[in-house]
Design a protein that fits this description.
136 residues, 1 helix, globular, RCC1/BLIP-II, Ran_GTPase-activating, Regulator of chromosome condensation RCC1, Reg_chr_condens
Length: 136
């Protein structure tokens, strides 16, 4: 699997593995303060709550992922989203049919929930119905 890197002049650097969908439509650090607040916005398909805005309504413009700040990295897999926070913890939301959100359930989540028993994380990734974390 090859790797592509893009630097978005307005928002933040985003790294995506070719062939892996990182969020169902897209997500990005919000402009004008992403380094300070680390907020995330998402848009597109939202059938499983993968936009993290508390609904299952599809969005044609970016909406904030609710209750999420101090984010340093984002990833996605299938219809799930993952966020790495500055404190080394991970939040997840969206489809959870195989437990890929790591919250101990198989319940879809329309807002971010903590991934249980996971801290000191330095990197995250998602693919299909699985989430991955690199732990110190």
């Amino acid at each position: 699997m090859s790797e592509r890197r893009w630097r978005l002049r307005v928002w933040a650097a985003v790294m995506a593995a070719v062939g892996v969908m990182f969020l169902p439509a897209a997500a990005l650090a919000s402009p004008g303060g992403s380094l300070k607040t680390g907020t995330v916005r998402a848009w597109g398909d939202n059938n499983f709550g993968q936009l993290g805005d508390g609904t299952t309504t599809n969005r044609t413009t970016p909406v904030p992922v609710v209750s999420l700040d101090r984010v340093t990295a984002i990833a996605g897999g299938g219809a799930s989203g993952y966020a790495l926070r500055r404190d080394g913890t991970v939040r997840a939301w969206g489809r959870n049919s195989s437990g890929q959100l790591g919250d101990g359930t198989t319940t879809n989540r329309t807002t971010p929930v903590p991934v249980v028993s996971l801290d000191r994380v330095t990197a995250i990734a998602g693919g299909g119905v699985s989430g991955y974390a690199l732990v110190k």
